[in-house]
Amino acid sequence: MLPTPSIFSLFIFLLLSSATWAHPKASTLDSFSQCLSDNTEILIPFSKAFITPNNSTFLPTLQSTAQNLRYLTPSVPKPEFIFTPMLDSHVQAAVICAKELGIHLRVRSGGHDYEALSYVSQTETPFIIVDLAKLRSVNIDIEDNSAWVQAGASIGEVYYRIAEKSKTHGYPAGLCTSLGVGGHITGGAYGTMMRKYGLGADNVMDACIVDASGRIHNRESMGEDLFWAIRGGGGASFGVILWWKIKLVPVPSTVTVFSVVKTLEQGATKLLHRYQQVAATELDEDLFIRVIIQPTVIDAKSGNKTIMTIYQAQFLGGVDRLLDVMGTSFPELGLTRKDCTQTSWLKSVMYIAGYPSNTPPEVLLQGKSTFKNYFKAKSDFVKDPIPEYALEGIWKRLYEQASPLMIFNPYGGMMSKISESEIPFPHRKGVLFKIQYLTTWQNGTEDEAEHMDWIRKLYNYMAPYVTMFPRQAYVNYRDLDLGVNKKSNTSFIEAIAWGNRYFKDNFNKLIKIKTKVDPDNFFRHEQSIPPLPLPLRKSSTTASTFFTSNSSAFTTVLNSTAQNLRYLLPSKPKPEFIFTPTDDSQVQYAVICSKQLGIHLRVRSGGHDYEGLSYVSQIETPFIIVDLPKLRSVNVDIQANSAWIQAGATIGEVYYRIAQKSRNHGFPAGLCTSLGVGGHITGGAYGTMMRKYGLAADNVLDARIVDVNGKILNRKTMGEDLFWAIRGGGGASFGIILWWKIKLVPVPTTVTVFTVAKTLEQGATKLLHRWQQVAATKLDTDLNIRVLIQPTVVDSKSGKRTVTTLYQGQFLGGVKRLLSVMQTGFPELNLTRTDCTQTSWLNSVMYIAGYATGTRPEVLLQGKPTFKNYFKSKSDFVKDPIPETALEGIWKRLLEETAPLIIWNPYGGMMSKISESAIPFPHRNVLFKIQYLTTWQAANENEAKHINWIRKLYTYMAPYVTKSPRQAYVNYKDLDLGINKKKNTSIAEASAWGNSTFFTSNSSAFTTVLNSTAQNLRYLLPSKPKPEFIFTPTDDSQVQKAVVCSKQLRIHLRVRSGGHDYEGLSYVSQIETPFIVVDLSKLRSVNVDIQSNSAWIQAGATIGEVYYRIAEKSRTHGFPAGLCTSLGVGGHITGGAYGTMMRKYGLAADNVLDARIVDVKGRILDRKTTGKDLFWAIRGGGGASFGVILWWKIKLVPVPSTVTVFSVSKTLEQGATKLLHRWQQVAATKLDKHLNIRVLIQPTVVDKLSGKRTLTTLFQGQFLGGVKRLLNVMQTGFPELNLTRKDCTESSWLNSVMYIAGYTNGTRPEVLLQGKPPFKSYFKAKSDFVKDPIPETALEGIWKRMLEGTSSLIIWNPYGGAMSEISESAIPFPHRKVLFKIQYLTGWLAANEDEAKHIDWIRKLYSYMAPYVTKSPRQAYVNYRDLDLGINKKKNTSIAEASAWGTRYFKDNFYRLIKIKTKVDPHNFFRHEQSIPPLARKA
């Protein structure tokens, strides 16, 4: 059992905390003052040094340097007293006494302190303040170019005293002159000269600090680590700063300042976009231009506002040189001499600080804050210019707030020359500018929450445009939204939430220094640096190979090869330690020791690992990582055309080392050059040469692996089975790969690459459709063209986007031959010579990998991942070109997401020549592979939204990709497909991801599969029984085995093939548990034979798919099945299956020619072998009583090329009652059998204000013919409807079906391939059949009851025609000589609604209808199962009991069904709540 240091650490930490930080006693002031007297030799004037709440100067002192009035309101905690020391020794004594007495202390030395951490404690009370405002000496030494300044002095005072001594000296600190230098410099301290000289903290030479023991140190005695930490590591974490020794810098005697205002109407947006491009990178270091952005009123009467941008600058020089600089680098601002003022450096500082012109410099000695307000602030850093459209989004949000402000401060110059780790302040190279956001309000009674919500929303909006990983923030602008410490015992892991943002990787060093100098965390506040817990403070004895969580390199090592930042979040389990072996024997020892000690081990060798499986264990903790990056030898043997490569080497290193030896050798592995070969090859490893040479795994000659016993095996000793398994069987299942011996392949000296972009507006859809037809099958195997598909912005102002398809190609040859190949095979791309680049093979690999032109190949040796992000990925394989209409559906979905990407990689060539079983990688005979990606910028973004988006896209793609199973690429692991349990996962459970046939309740896809074809949400509630697992067979034989095994093991089985199933009988067993579901949704082939007017269709195919595939072959053929196109034909036809052509051709079940069924013995029978009786029974006898239907052979029927549809609506006020009474008299008996008019009846609102409702009757018709003949038929048979030509639409038969099914006009027929249920709700349904017209008075009774219901619907479907011509016993479906069928429905919106109320309503309506419908028996439609009619007992229901429902569905046919059931399934294996029971067996 592993130790659990995290729990132990916390315990010790809390134990120490409780002992060290006891609350002060009641006599805090007396005890403290007495202690001070005892610990200082110099008398303290207590009346002046101590200020208590009952002192008249308490509030003025408390408020003196506070900027944010939010923290001065009465509700905010106040200190017990304020101590204002006058000497350094007073501060020493204060620290000693606070520590001795257990008093929580806050130190104030006048920094920005936006969150009031120096004078308010929200986590710990009581507390006191040590305020350094009286320690404000400034001692200038011009000869030494330095000054010693006390912590309480303000920046203004420092500037004044320097200028007092010299007009040509200055100091590069802040813009706010009232800030105290003590706190200001601890956070970095930027100002107008930072581009010339760096930060205030970069120009500190020495310091004096009081440490946690009360000792005063200078630079020498504190040591370089602590001196490093206090210059930018944030205030009040390490001690109390008493003095800074600062370095003075030269300034010219003449300094120029200016302010230029630009509004939106004056082109502010474009100008600010240009500013971002030049302010940090192209302007002279002597020039600093910040931009202040805020709304301003342009019309006092109307209140109209615009955005004003103020360009405010300081230039270290005269106006003439400034104008030259601006004319060269930023002429767009239009700066003129009149805009400029020449002055002294000191006056320039005052100008930037906002002092009015001619203000005497002596004002700086007052140290009064120029800014006091109620406000909230945030900060960001920007590395890439914010696009214009995003700026417009900012403007929109600024308008929403009363008093917002944004400030852009430029970086570059000296800031980019200083290392990120020089001091703790890390925001250096690459940063263009810093953003400060502010929202202010006037008084404490205003709605603070509204302002806070606004700035947080703005901050969220900015996420895509600012730094990431981490999203950086400026520590002097503290922001408690980023996270806060707990009282006393915040862990350093929790503190990372804000620490990494302020300090990046420097945070880890700060923690180490804190642990060393203040291990008991005496100096603490809401965002102070925490120390490490006691048990984690010992350094590792084997630092080079072991990294524990207290190691400063732990996070770096853990993050090193990880691509998906989702799995590096603090919430994810972390390893106990990371072991990085340096030779093969150490890997052996790691396996042996882990096995002996029972330690769960993960192995990392740098593959894609999209789900973090090599460094995160979500099912088993604790765990360790064996990380192989130090095993990276690459030994190339050109003569043998091979190389031995260690598992930790990257693909890029392998490519580089091969090219180093030969320009004519290569290796057909991946595109991502930072991938480790160990993991990469175990999954197959495809690349740009796979069409020529196959996968990397296809080109492995030998390997060395550490097995479960710690033995090192090669190909010979491991045997061919294991050697087969490791080449494509996925990583970390069989052992640890140490080495691969790879086969090198020939490459030409000249390789050609190209990239061609096409947008939707440039015909991308048609071009991509064509690419599918040629890329794998018609193009030369030397050519690989992949396609990257993503949205791009086409109009930065409006933010309008399109979809761009990027055709990226590598050709093993010169440009001339390439152009010839393209002209023959893919001329539609219009590739030209100018699109192409001839290069070496190595450079072609770098081109495809995304390296910028001119990048040196040595970059491949760095092994840094080129892609790190928060993301979710999925994969698919495609065998048939995706139709253009489906591509348009993809575009629609891509444009819904923020940052999606789809990549299509072509197969064919060598890939199709290698057997699917040559290695475990089976995806050979496919056209291309799809990778789906969605990425997001920050950990706090809505991850669920992005994952939901990609899952919906994946679902949408189902009809267009491989099936049975739906294939996926193992190197793009996808935990949505299912996950193993701890240790003992069964083969069936693992099949969920292994071949996608089993889904257990622990599979992430279980709920999706269970819900897939279910319509009634009542049966998906948590309270309903769930299956042990769902089995989704992919061929007939698997169904046979399922039946045989279930019978042998006595497992209760339910079969689902997608019928209506209103009562959930195919996926819920309420009488028998446990149970399993055999779901036939993967058995969906449709084989249409137009010549024989027939089709064989698998049970899992939907009606919509059948209709589509028939229409695909012929516009004059159809099939008379249902209206709900998402129904599976297996279940649908077993109940009869009526539709709009039943008056012409009867039911679907009347048009079945043959079938294949698995019987109770597991045999597959067809019409001949089933016999006449069983074939009769399955066509209308209800689902799942006699066996499992696999296939139906259906008879196609003729349909005209023109079909007419219409919908006519009539309300009660428009005579609906009389009209419906007339409809009953004609719809079944008088109208042409080519015409079917159903009626949908439901309440509708006629007055939204009063909520008044009426009944609307919708007459919806399909006529097999043109509109002219239809109007004649209607005029003769049903003139009362007043049908006109305008009401009618002529269409194809397929589109007429879609019209009746409720698809909107213009919907492409390909939607039918998706098979999504259009109707999912909580509902209850019933059915009736009618033989005599219902009187008008009875109709009015129906209306009354419908208006009482909340959400009700009644549908009347006319019979007659062919339906009345077929015998009641021709098939089990007996409802022939009737006028129409009624379906009753009541639905509700939420699970917590009163279900009983709705069900009671429909039952009462059903009772009311009794006199008007069929009797003896009252008939019901078996496809609309209704458990109110009765249910079977477990196994042994009697015939008498079953007759309660059986005779209603089947009339006298029920008794024949019982006889057949008794014959074919006497033990009632196939059973459910309303299955046909067998006769009781004689004793």
Primary descriptors:
alpha+beta; 1483 residues; seven-stranded antiparallel sheet; 29% helix
**Rounded average pLDDT:** 90
Main sheet summary: 7 strands, antiparallel
* Beta content: 15-25%
CA gyration radius, whole angstroms:
39 Å
Shape: globular
Helix content: 25-40%
Query: How far is the first residue's CA from the last residue's CA?
Result: 60 Å
Low-confidence stretches: 1-26, 538-543
Question: Order of strands in the sheet with the most strands?
Answer: 15-12-14-13-17-18-16
| SS content category | alpha+beta
Number of helices: 46
- Count the E strands: 54
Descriptive report:
With 1483 residues, the chain is of the alpha+beta class. It is 29% helix and 22% strand. It has 46 helices and 54 strands. The strands form twelve sheets. Strands 15-12-14-13-17-18-16 form a seven-stranded antiparallel β-sheet. A hairpin with a 5-residue loop joins strand 26 (700-706) and strand 27. Helix 2 (28-39) packs across helix 5 (88-101) and helix 45 packs across helix 46. The longest helix is centred in the N-terminal third of the chain and has 16 residues, at 5-20. The protein is globular.
